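Predict the 3D structure for this chain.
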Amino acid sequence: MKKNSIYSNLLYSIYIIIPFLLITGPALPDIFLTLFSIIFIFFYFRKLNNTKIELWMILIILLWIWFIIISFFAVDIYLSLTDAVIFLRFILFIIFSYLFLKHINIKFLKYILYSILCLCLFVSLDTFYQFYNFSNENGFGEDIFGRKPEGLYGRLSGPFSDLVTGSYLSRFIFFIIFLFLLEKKFILENKYFYFFVIFSLSLIVSAIYFSGERMALATTFLGFLLCFVFSKNLKKIILFSSMLSIIFIIININYHPYYNNYKIIKSTAKHEGLIIERNYVCENNNKCSKKFKVQPKFFTIIKNFNNSAYADIYLTSYNMWKDNILFGIGLNNFNFLCNKNAKYINNKSFGCTTHPHNIYLQALVESGFIGFLIFCFFAFSLFKKIFKSSNPDQRIVLIATLLTVFWPLMSTGSFLKNWNMTTICIICSICLVLSQINKSQSIEFK
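Done. Predicted structure below.
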């Protein structure tokens, strides 16, 4: 990528800014994602004549074609077809960003990773500002932008408008570890920077924990475990950062008022089934109390899973799929069908949500068994490509990163929502590009 190439610089700038724009909400990152693909088509598409078509590209395009086909059998054809058509922007972005970034200088890839480090630190620090801005009367307060968590009590939003801090950080944290591998010699020769990286990782892990997103914490822990067990060069940094974060977490659990000074009134596995009461000082120094509905504890859900909100959602999803095995119910039709047909829901169930809360289950329910198979093969093809990475340490970090998106045993956002899918596109494209480091390049974008 030459310095005098205005369009190359523009594409690179657009790409590097998208992770920052995710903080603003779903609109801007989606717009810039689409803009990236448009610019690529106009100025670089003609250079792709001799580009090798890879398996994952074929599968993701095939998945999109299947989305179009099943829309004509959907419960709401217009709703499904609309989402299927505009889903193309995500597919083009993953393919085009991969084709563009894999041919730029590694120096520019490092800039992307350094920007992610700065971004994750900012999100973590803002989350901690909100975390310590706590009162027994109102819960967590505003972040530095004046945003207050809305929705579930006990969850932190950080700089985001939604409660996604933990999932955002868990998906990007492993790129910081990958940066350590790329800059290992420099970092080890500069002890202060080495400690800075360890401190940064521990801070981010702690922010994930305090965010209250248990699946984000679980996938982060899984990735750390894989890196520690299978990487020779990451054991120390994983161990030191984990120990530091555990110490910090324990201190806060013992002294932060959120984890203390409350009484449990009721505890069930249902959605917001844990009811607690907090005391606080109100007007004229009187003692007042207030009750809050909180998400049940993790082990409470595990022990009583059949009575949990997850069981309701998954059972509703399964029943829908049984009635629409081949073509599914159509994209984004879950909530529509659930409220339309009383057989899938009852007044006591939590099943009528916007989506099935698991990307594999969503693929099965909304696109049928064939769509589910194509999606699984696509995910497998990404992991297969990563496995071919020449460096074993880099390989395990990239696998850990992809698992934050594709680990099957977790609750997830909908892959049709633009904020979530934009994040997934960024994660997948960076992983694909980083897996190509030190490999031959055949195209130069000028």
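The CA atoms of residues 116 and 171 lie 11 Å apart.
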